[in-house]
């Protein structure tokens, strides 16, 4: 449970009002409120479980209003459901606010920070502190800059494969147990503090990764981008061959791209996992190898179909020319006899022309 005391310790707030019991009030939402309309007495849309911030605008409004009215409205603001009230810019807390907080035993803090900056920093911090979380039995590594989970049944070799990947220069985040939080639509994986930097290798025991491979072999946390499900090799079980289909694994309502890899003694799993991560990065950048393979096959089929049709047209065209030759008409009696011509339209025909005939008298005729 995250409390007002945890928040005050993280940001260094000064406690103006509240005993130890009140400082244990739980904070359940990351959203914050600035109760301007509430100071005027409008509580129709008031969120009672939010942290209240009093900045310059609220202070100016308080100084303009009647103190008794501010006190009555502040009693509702500082209710038992309010985690705390924070006065920003280091300003002095107005007496009606202090009196209402004391009466309801509501935590009242003071901060020197700017209201907008503090609101932004607190929201980021609270979204992480209050994020939904879970833990799974797996290994988490940073491979080529991506957080990759190695999932599989116990004894399949997750730690041994992780050890091989660390030797290749990749980073270990968690072995055996991975803590996962859903922060603003992203899954952040980390390691429990008790086993950070440690790995269990069957037959050896617990090893210290930082001492064996250097401090650069470790990383505190990573955004989970890819999941590898290690399964026992079974030649009768169908596996993805082209890579057109993308499986997804659900974690805390988010879906992580996943690939299933069969494990066997003859396969170098660290090399295959590196190839799988690289192929995933190519897809993320817009290049899908499976799609390109299908596209190439389609283009080859279209090319062969076009070649087949062109060959058919050539064959039909040759048959048509032979038919014209066989139907060549008789020579023209007026024009005289002609040399035998294969194709009247050919270039040879135009060059030969017609033959001149010379009679006995020496006269030439055509």
How many domains, as an integer?
Answer: 3
Number of helices: 11
| Termini gap | 119 Å
**Mean pLDDT level:** 84
CATH H-level homologous superfamily name of the largest domain: P-loop containing nucleotide triphosphate hydrolases
Question: Which spans of ≥5 residues are poorly predicted at pLDDT below 50?
Answer: 331-361
What is the rounded Rg? 42 Å
Reported CATH architecture of the largest domain: 3-Layer(aba) Sandwich
Class based on secondary structure composition and strand pairing: alpha/beta
**Form type:** elongated
How is the CATH topology of the largest domain named? Rossmann fold
Tell me what portion of residues adopts beta-strand conformation.
Answer: 15-25%
Q: What is the subunit arrangement here?
A: single chain
Largest sheet: 9 strands, mixed
N-to-C order of helices and strands: HEEHEHHEHEHEEEHEEEEEHEEEHHHEE
The CATH top-level class label of the largest domain: Alpha Beta
Helix content: 25-40%
**What's the β-strand tally?**
18
SSE topology:
Blueprint: H1 4-11, E1 14-17, E2 32-33, H2 36-39, E3 51-54, H3 56-64, H4 67-77, E4 85-87, H5 95-104, E5 108-110, H6 115-129, E6 133-136, E7 139-143, E8 146-152, H7 158-167, E9 171-174, E10 178-183, E11 186-190, E12 198-201, E13 205-208, H8 209-213, E14 221-232, E15 247-251, E16 254-263, H9 269-284, H10 289-326, H11 347-352, E17 357-358, E18 364-365
Parallel strand pairs: 2-3, 3-4, 4-5, 8-14, 14-16
Antiparallel strand pairs: 1-5, 6-10, 7-8, 7-9, 10-11, 11-14, 12-13, 15-16, 17-18
Helix pairs in contact: 4-5, 7-9
What does this protein structure show overall?
This protein is of the alpha/beta class and 366 residues long. It has three domains: 4-129, Udp-n-acetylmuramoylalanyl-d-glutamate--2,6- Diaminopimelate Ligase, Chain: A, domain 1 (3-Layer(aba) Sandwich), CATH 3.40.1390.20; 133-287, Rossmann fold, CATH 3.40.50; 331-366, no CATH class. Helices cover 36% and strands 23% of the residues. It is built from eleven helices and 18 strands. The chain has helices at residues 4-11, 36-39, 56-64, 67-77, 95-104, 115-129, 158-167, 209-213, 269-284, 289-326, 347-352; strands at residues 14-17, 32-33, 51-54, 85-87, 108-110, 133-136, 139-143, 146-152, 171-174, 178-183, 186-190, 198-201, 205-208, 221-232, 247-251, 254-263, 357-358, 364-365. Residues 331-361 have low confidence and may be disordered.
